[in-house]
């Protein structure tokens, strides 16, 4: 009697609304020619693309890893999330801005946010805004999240962008996808290419300015795209303190400035909630 055979893996072409990315084409279009990206890889599944690149942190910068599915995806504060295979862009990059003072590296997730928002707005024809420090929004709904982590002498920055998710597939009720926002395209190939090219442009401009966000134009671009500035916010700080006030701007170190009854305070890390008037009463 013969043993049972394992069922074959489902074809990535089963869902024609979610075709697989073609690594060969991405590599031809993005690698080499004196540019930043020296290796672009697409894998069908991994635990976390950030963790995979962190394990290669001793290598030169310019690595890009794209996962069609992540089974252990993480956001800020170690929050877990998952999405159906090929339903979004789940990518990480390894950067080593060694000619930039480490004190200015806090701008990297904001820089990636600016690049991603510009690329997706242009290619998708949708209005993408930024929520400090690491989210992309359409309206008040979250389209993407960014996670930056120190790795050896560099930084791994990951982005998870919802592309074709349907309403019942969203990770949280306040999320949105490009499909739900009626983007003019949900083709991940041009979206990913545009994102990486805009990221390279902003990264090289920022590095050439020694990480000076104002001199490179990054501060102005971020301020113009940031939906948090001008809003009433509630910030849950790492020590457990809650800060409520008006977000008035971003300082030269990329920190959000919150004007509270005790005076303005620059916040470098915290969980930000955009407060609606009806939600504020319990917190005053």
Overview of the molecule:
The structure is a single chain. With 284 residues, the protein is an alpha+beta fold. 24% of the residues lie in helices and 27% in strands. The chain is built from seven helices and 14 strands. The strands form three sheets. The chain has a seven-stranded mixed β-sheet with strand order 1-2-5-9-8-7-6. Strands 13-12-11-10-14 form a five-stranded antiparallel β-sheet, with no helix packed on it. It has a two-stranded antiparallel ribbon with strand order 3-4. Strand 10 and strand 11 (242-250) form a beta hairpin. Helix 3 (108-124) packs across helix 4 (188-208). The longest helix is centred in the C-terminal third of the chain and has 21 residues, at 188-208.
**Proportion of residues in β-strands:** 25-35%
> Structural class, from helix and strand content?
alpha+beta
Kindly provide the radius of gyration, computed on alpha-carbon positions and rounded to a whole number of angstroms: 20 Å
Q: How much helix is in the residues?
A: 10-25%
Low-confidence stretches: none
Q: Give the total of beta strands.
A: 14
Shape: globular
Mean pLDDT: 91
> What order do the strands of the largest sheet run in, or round the barrel if closed?
1-2-5-9-8-7-6
Distance between termini?
A: 73 Å
Compressed to H and E, one letter per element, the order equals HEHEEEEHEEEEHHHEEEEEH
> What's the helix count?
7
The main pleated sheet reads as: 7 strands, mixed
